[in-house]
Amino acid sequence: MAASETLKRVGVAIAGIPPALAAVWMGGWVLAGLLALCAALTAFELYRMAEKKPARPLALLGSAGAAAIVLAAGAMPEDGVRNPLPTIALVLLAITAACVCIWARGVEGEPLVSTAVTVFGAGYAALLGFGLYLRHLPELRGELHGPALLLAPVLLTWISDSAAYFGGRAFGRRKLIPRVSPGKTVEGALSAVLGGVIGGIAYAYLLTSFWTYQPSPWEGALLGLLVSVFAQLGDLAESLWKRDVGVKDSGTLLPGHGGALDRFDSLIVTLPLGYAFFALVVGP
After folding, report:
1. Fewest beta carbons within 10 Å, which of 8, 39, 46, 88?
2. pTM, 2 dp
């Protein structure tokens, strides 16, 4: 990686991490607003990619819909998946997109594909809203507890990604799925899993300082394993889409990092996973 590219990546990280941590700390509507913005940007980039195919998604409507779904989750985050508002928002988006396509796309404008991509893009990007449910799980103890739980899949995703990068550089010999992502190797993928498991065990130990949601070391290892596998699958799915439309990055929003979808492709799947794990496996 060129020095200038590295400096860009570091600069974006320095600028972005403090407000992100502040939103995680504050939770509520502040976190909902940040996640809604991220979801809207992610959906918009997905739509721009889709436009390189015959699809003509309703980009502005879908991006607004993605933000609305996340904000709907923010209305009652303590209810988790029992909160009906995000589902209602998604249904209303689907109906609206179908109706708008009657006039905005017509018979010749690929209305079926346009409607489907619009709804899928919004729903997929809005999965970032699960971060709200994780941050506001019931029976939390202490101001740091919610942020600590939300950061679990975030940090484990980062650890897995870093382990894959360094493990692939040091030991990478066999390509994982070269037609989808030529740079990824089997050794890098295994390094990611190992890093995730070790990170999960360490993070489980840190969570023992709280009264509830205390994963055992085995549960921490399982969480790290699952996060690593799902993070890699999320990344591979986005790589597949980019190969399909012939682009290197989903966008140019973040210098040195690509676009929003490039940054959140793994978190889109690991945040729902983290919520399900702590809600259903670990429990309060």
Report:
1. 88
2. 0.93
